[in-house]
Amino acid sequence: MVGSKRGIDMYSIILLEYDMRIKAGRVEDDDHQLIDGVSALSDLQGTWNRAFRKRIHGDCGAVDLVLARIHDAVLANVEVVISEVQNSFNLCLRCSIGGYKKQIRLFDGAIGESRGLKRSVVVVVDGSTMDLKFEVASEPSCSAEHRRSFKARTHGLDTREIKTEFGLISVKVAWSTLLST
């Protein structure tokens, strides 16, 4: 068969397509197919600004997706840079957004030298608060917690710094709007 692998005829408002694989080798053909498929979401009269969970079953297991439809949403591009590192430490960075009980884990790992963390994008209701919680520890039994809050807005840049005994944590949040219809 020549051409595309599949055809899609869309009757829904939102279409999510998945092609998730478990890395097993050096090339993509060696990887195991976890999930390959689509989900259609069309109920626009349902609940807004509330998360819901969808489980997708595949040949090698299942994946839980947490989805939310956010009205008046803005994007928060979160960039964290660790500098002036004195000693190695563990860092766990979590995010809470207004109206949601569960926290979003943005980073959890060891820091041994100055570096930037992978940039994260979080969707937030315009005008609500996004809280970042930094748990800094040299060992599991001894940790310090630092929180920084940001008020969501349509455009702009917010910066904060956290000085710890291990180093300097700089946080930059760039706000931007989503396209609206």
Quick summary:
This protein has 181 residues and is mainly β.
Summary keywords:
single chain, 181 residues, mainly beta, Immunoglobulin-like, 5-stranded antiparallel β-sheet, globular
What's the topology here?
Elements: E1 14-22, E2 32-41, E3 51-58, E4 61-68, E5 73-83, E6 89-97, E7 104-111, E8 115-116, E9 120-125, E10 129-139, E11 142-151, E12 156-163, E13 168-177
Antiparallel strand pairs: 1-2, 3-4, 5-8, 5-9, 5-13, 6-7, 6-10, 10-11, 12-13
Organism: Triticum aestivum
Domain DUF6598: 2-173
Protein name: DUF6598 domain-containing protein
Could you please describe the fold and organization of this structure?
- The protein has 181 residues and is mostly beta strands.
- The protein folds into two domains: 14-68, no CATH class; 73-177, Sandwich (Immunoglobulin-like), CATH 2.60.40.150.
- It is built from no helices and 13 strands.
- It has strands at 14-22, 32-41, 51-58, 61-68, 73-83, 89-97, 104-111, 115-116, 120-125, 129-139, 142-151, 156-163, 168-177.
- The strands form four sheets. Strands 5, 8, 9, 12 and 13 form a five-stranded antiparallel β-sheet that branches. A four-stranded antiparallel β-sheet has the order 7-6-10-11, with no helix packed on it. Strands 1-2 form a two-stranded antiparallel sheet.
- Strand 10 (129-139) and strand 11 form a beta hairpin.
- It is globular, with a radius of gyration of 20 Å.
- The mean pLDDT is 82.
Q: Structural class per helix/strand content?
A: mainly beta
Order of helices and strands: EEEEEEEEEEEEE
Briefly note the CATH topology name of the largest domain: Immunoglobulin-like
Low-confidence stretches: none
Average of per-residue pLDDT values: 82
CATH architecture of the largest domain: Sandwich
State the end-to-end distance: 37 Å
The number of E-state strands comes to: 13
Give the class-level CATH name of the largest domain.
Answer: Mainly Beta
CATH superfamily annotation of the largest domain:
C2 domain
Q: What overall form do the CA principal axes indicate?
A: globular
Helix percent reads: under 10%
Counting H and I runs of at least 4 residues, what is the number of helices?
Answer: 0
Q: Main sheet, how many strands, which sense, barrel?
A: 5 strands, antiparallel
Radius of gyration, rounded? 20 Å
Strand content: over 45%
